[in-house]
Amino acid sequence: MTAAPDKGHHILTVNAGSSSLRLADYVLDGELSRVADMHLSPSPARDPDVLVDFVRRHALGAPKLVMHRVVHGGQRLRAPCWIDAGVEDEIDRLRTLAPLHNGVALDWIRASREAFGSEVRQAACFDTGFYAELPRAAAHYAVPREWADKYQLRRYGFHGIAHQSMLDQWRERSQSPGGTRVISLQLGAGCSMTASDHGSPLETSMGFSPLEGLMMATRCGDLDPAAVLHLIDEAGFSPAELGWILNESSGLRAVSGQTGDMQELLGSDSSDAALAVAMFCHRIRKYLGAYLAVLGGADAILFGGGIGEHASLVRARILERLAWAGIRLDAKHNTTVSAEAGGLIHAEDSAVEIWVVPTDEARVMADAARILLNIDHPSETTSILELSE
């Protein structure tokens, strides 16, 4: 199916996450202006008609380009780029490292091609790109160097587009424009934290895959590798079985025995649900303390994502007992802040700004698309993979 004829410079962003699909359309006329958006949760299966119906419903016409969020770009796909056959193959090759995400992104890349035809260019923006220059001490694992080189073992970091969005918005709204040290928390179905200074990440919780780090809705987060070896040797699990369990049947869902939905857990009387919430907050607080050490203190703490923006009780529990670090929450601001607009939630005597900052990945993606349109001439574009050789 083909959409209506092109009526202008429209950029369609497609953000296919592990649990939802977000679409947004921007008009490019000197400045970027968002004219439509849509959030579907749970995410529908690949369907070109979803994209066509979205642009038709808003009388937008076919987009100038479609910009896709791709979680894992590996070592070769670091910057936003046009999608050619080589880029598509590389996204597919990395599927095993982001099993909940890269395959879904590929599905929607192909759906976009079916919806709008080959004349509408496809581009990709990578979550891992934000962490491409992560300091070596943070990026490397303590494994044999030949392993790291041969198998591309390193800490890639994820949710980079979301963390970039929070940083950009905080810089625009900050009450302390001279501040540079920021700890951002992207808390949703997937959860991650990043410590940044002067806009550059120094540390992040996710690593080789989006499985490392914080406890999440269905992902286990940090786990002793010996536990995995033990389950293979003693319980007879295959690596594929364990991969599925640790990614899709662990985390909040496993501990609570009920669900990975934080709002449901907060409303539950179950002791297992209470334990799941307590573990979730404890792990984040532990990382928060570590990042204060990495940065030598913080100028701001930012909460984003579905849990970070909506769960005031979770924010309060994460920040308990941190007054020693100058972190003081205002209870009233915390419970009344608008999840949609965000805002400051710190007390007047807090030495650290605390904000709810709704993530806007679509805006970051649209900005990247605008840059590609300005600097790239499709007929002359060399594959990004050729340039990275």
Give the helix/strand layout.
Elements: E1 10-16, E2 21-29, E3 31-40, H1 48-57, E4 65-70, E5 81-82, H2 85-93, H3 102-116, E6 121-126, H4 136-139, H5 145-151, H6 160-173, E7 181-187, E8 191-197, E9 200-204, H7 225-234, H8 239-248, H9 251-256, H10 262-266, H11 271-295, E10 300-304, H12 305-310, H13 312-318, H14 331-336, E11 343-344, E12 353-356, H15 361-375, H16 384-388
Parallel strand pairs: 1-4, 4-6, 7-10, 10-12
Antiparallel strand pairs: 1-2, 2-3, 5-6, 7-8, 8-9, 11-12
Helix pairs in contact: 1-3, 6-15, 11-13
Would you give the CATH topology of the largest domain? Nucleotidyltransferase, domain 5
Provide the CATH superfamily of the largest domain. Answer: ATPase, nucleotide binding domain
CATH architecture of the largest domain: 2-Layer Sandwich
Poorly predicted segments: 1-7, 377-384
Tally of structural domains: 2
Classify the helix fraction into a percent range. 25-40%
Structural shape: globular
